[in-house]
């Protein structure tokens, strides 16, 4: 933790991990981060969790990339066979000029020979808004299409699809801190104590002061202790459960008639649809008794102010969009939108997944969710981007891009700060696809599993090594400031993107993130009244922001929605079973997710000494009775097999999971959860079903 007596300087910035977006202060001694303290940001009010407080020394890990690398001509076959500490049989060091030249030439050659669609890009939710903007611009301007995406596709794409469809905006309608004004809150498919820990402190305070907390999750979890109702429903039955709750609200006439009449459309079709879901019929399916469903419905509908929070347990299903549609309908029915203490809040995952999406790092829309199919939008960007023709066809999403690579239709990729060789579903398929690329350029801070497949690796900056803005789950745009220099010759991501763009023939002339931010403001209404100067002096401004004095609107849509006639929409949702269900060969259910100490694919947190020492090894959570049935003691090894593959991993006894279910964290490469996961997609959000796979669990054979 360093010497706490004195430091050379202090730098205010933002935590690089989750979407809560806690502000922090880096304490710098001898040009190294000595320790970190919470700062008074609007989302965290000085609080930090273990990742924010102790997870910073990854920046000084000896595995950091400090010079550009180019694949050697005599390198062994591409695969996960590179030692990050000793990559020299596969790669050689290069100067920046040569590396950028080779990187750009490989992509440009594919563009000339096969056309622009032969190249696609994955940007990152870990980089700044400015870097996300530049990345999507490079693909759209440099290659003439929209095949650019990032990890939002793997976390909340279905939530955004449902919110855009029914509310007219993809962001939260209220900050999570609004819970202090609520009487009741639903927390479904989210485990904030592990995944949004500082937000969880507000949720616990809410319960302690008497707020009614309703937790719905197939897994038990820490918030259960604070809940008035804990509904541990069967995995994949969200729509049945939520429709049953809404059936009660409609049947018992508990809904807010005035609100429904004044602010919504589609109620009568919805009312007819919901009649088919009485709790007594849904109880057996979702494993929750009808009386509990009725009580939850009454508690939520009768409250003066209610909020709904959800996480990836809702979104990562082939019916993820339907799940989110149900939550939106539930809030609309009860009029729990647009007032203090009310709202819809999908808890965003990565520190800048909201901002990267806002900046247009998604294949269907330009910055600020402006559709590529709208001629007026294309005209706007043709004007701002000096004559660039925007492709009117929505691009491919993350998993679709991987499939196109596999089929040989996409032959070159530019990947900035993402790790699809760990994060994609059915990851052996993704790894095979990556190995087939003619040219892969990876820009990262470590030699990730994806970088192992690269032809050129460009060493980038960690978050404390650069300046830029990020946007958290609350729509708060915040200023991240450079605290230390990057190691060796590593560069800021924005500078690398510009260098590559110039070598691809684009006439780019940015002199820093501020000039990029100024360009973003030309097309993004969400940034009205938010200026670089304000962010420098105020550290955070929430959008929408009504004036230069306004800190921004925490709660939105009190006077209508950004949809036709200002009305939100009810979209009925049918019960769709998971893409595969247990059978004789694969009789149990696999759920994947995160743990408190590790972040996503583990490339940073497994190199953060405190976090790695707290949770150093892969494990799978299994109910003790299931372990006894399998004849395996806690700590013994289990083999998990799905239709995609097998992993072997140590068992951890945990009563939080049901007896027919196992939970496998996805941060550990040695038992990569995504070897097992199902790549089937939600048809609207195109998100894979990470939260449900049929699995066989057995004792691993000794040796
Ligand atoms: Fe960082 Fe999230 Fe923890 Fe806050 S809650 S310190 S943003 S990981």
From TrEMBL:
GO terms for biological process: formate metabolic process; respiratory electron transport chain. GO terms for cellular component: membrane; oxidoreductase complex. GO terms for molecular function: 4 iron, 4 sulfur cluster binding; formate dehydrogenase (NAD+) activity; metal ion binding; molybdopterin cofactor binding; NADH dehydrogenase activity. Signal peptide: none annotated. Residues 8-63 form the 4Fe-4S Mo/W bis-MGD-type domain. Keywords: 4Fe-4S, Iron, Iron-sulfur, Metal-binding, Oxidoreductase, Repeat. In the C-terminal section; belongs to the prokaryotic molybdopterin-containing oxidoreductase family. This is Formate dehydrogenase subunit alpha. It comes from Halovulum dunhuangense. The chain holds residues 221 to 923 of 930 of the full protein.
